[in-house]
Specification:
Elements (H helix, E strand, L loop, with lengths): L2 H17 L2 H14 L24 H10 L12 H6 L8 H26 L2 H5 L13 H6 L2 H11 L24 H14 L1 H6 L7 H12 L19 H4 L8 E3 L2 E2 L21 H17 L14 E11 L10 E7 L1 E2 L4 E2 L5 E6 L6 E8 L20 E10 L3 H4 L10 E9 L9 E4 L12
Parallel strand pairs: 3-11
Antiparallel strand pairs: 1-2, 3-8, 4-7, 4-9, 5-6, 7-8, 9-10
Helix pairs in contact: 1-5, 2-5, 8-13
Amino acid sequence: MNRFFAILILSMALTGAADQGAIDIFEQRIMPIFRSPNPSSCVQCHLSAVDLKDYILPSSDETFASLREQGLIDIKHPGDSKILTLINMGQKDYGKGAELIHAETRKAEYEAFAAWITAGANDPKLRILPAPKQAAGPKKADTIIRHSRMDRVLDSFTRNVWSQRMRCFPCHTPHEIDDADPKHKLAWERMNKMEADLGVGFAGRMKIFKDTPEATLNYLLRDSGRKREDRLPLINLKTPTDSLLVLKPTAPLPKKIADKQFEEPSYLKPITHMGGIKMHPDDFSYKAFVAWIEDYARVVSDRYQTAEDLPADNWYFTSHMLLMRDAPVDWPASSRVQFLVHGWNDHRKAWAENPIAFTQGTLNPRRSIFGTLFLLRSPQTEKEVQWESDNPTLPPGRYLIKAYIDRVGILTDKPAAILGKESFYGQGLLDARWEKLFKNAEKFTGDLFKTNNKPSE
């Protein structure tokens, strides 16, 4: 809502407030908001944890005094009251159909509160009334409220899922095909053949990744809200690991029925995927996808109760890669391994206690492990990492690499977990250039790790 309309609405509220007291306006216009079974316009920006109803107490006097005491009502300049700013914040939506509904709801809420605040600010009693013991406002901590914001969810989706969309190229990312790039000629021919064989409509439904992260997230959420008997949802809120978004790329090809012909792919267990296996349940991409879906499911179901419940949500996908060959002989076949990267702490003159990055992979038959690095953003890493671009990077130098082996199936039960000291195997120093792409991966052998090895600078 622009400033002109805000002033217009406020002037209308002032005119009405001159003839009505705060109590009358509260009962006629505020309490219906409180009693309504419908969510307020807060849901436009917040998926959970906050609703305009939270700011309303049983009486006009209690509500006004509480909001005034918290600085949410400005008795000198009613139109500048923070509660009005909060109501008016939602100017953007992720679904065109809901946009008008939110706008109408927000306008009604704004007008009601503006009229009530104006009337209350003109009441000498309300200007000095002591605040009640019960404070109006959300019961959840500010950190939980911020975590439930749609822009935070979108940012997390961009870092954990959208960033790895090229693993699904070109079938699910056709907009990434560059007709002028000779390297994309095969992809372009493949997509044309797919549309010819399956029809434009079916091929269109395969375009899971849209032109932007926002459009992609909107599509995934909208599609997952449709109840279907013949397929699992792309995002499964009840069981995140049963989301097609992770089941499909980890599924094998359908059964072959003739030369170059296969059965129809399955969207119910056992899942099959015409693209074949694109990632494994043990690797970094699967981990990031599941971590995001689990977090989203907890947010929309309002399961976060305390700030301690929140995930760090600080994973940033990079183009840096680690490749270890010749694993130690005592590493079991198909071991799930995490590598945690630690930087040097100049202040303490020691290796930093908390990791600066990590990756994860499975020991393959050649006794090698490959993984793409995720940076872990924290106050510690603000100076150590170059965050300016969309693809953050570590500076070249010496780093401490710690190896952790999941011997008891921790990652089976909790795919998004970071392994701890109970899984520690060994550590070693690596002089890293941190260049990009697989051909420039940081390469080392299992000799880097020796149990209880404690290197010093």
